[in-house]
Amino acid sequence: MQLLEDDILRLRALEPEDLEVLYRWENDATLWAVGNTLAPYSRYLLKQYIAQAHEDIYTLRQLRLLIERKADARSVGLVDLYDFDPHHLRAAVGIIVDPSCQRQGIARRALALLHAYAFSFLRLHQLYAYIPVSNVASEQLFRQAGYEETGLLKDWLIDMAGFCDVRVMQKIN
Length: 173
Fold this sequence. Notes:
With 173 residues, this protein is α+β, with helices and mostly antiparallel strands. It is built from 5 helices and 7 strands. Helix 1 (19-26) packs across helix 2.
């Protein structure tokens, strides 16, 4: 078995063929509040992003991998390491699973693969995630993956309803 795959999923680099699914996920306004997106992304900009995605995590300080279901090669989500700090050996984690594929264990499996890669290959000391307090499913996912809540950021994110608190969760290797 490869480092970035199990019997069900494969985490892989972005390819030009992923443009349309990436365009759909990146332009889903319901996800903007948990990220730093303020406006839609153009296909042109996403093509450029995919073209530079081959650069390593030490250059970009980010690694985005597509979650692919092996049985049918379907793109089912994305997992990110971002805010990578090579000196302190840590990175933030983000994950998106297509709504049509949620509640199938995909996020749990993808996180396990990402952890194996981050802790064994990249030799990171810790991973962390920012989770809005209203996102109970994400909090449960990260708790089940061994993350512990280590802080609460007050009024950290804003959405249409106003400001919301965010949990800081960490997994230390």
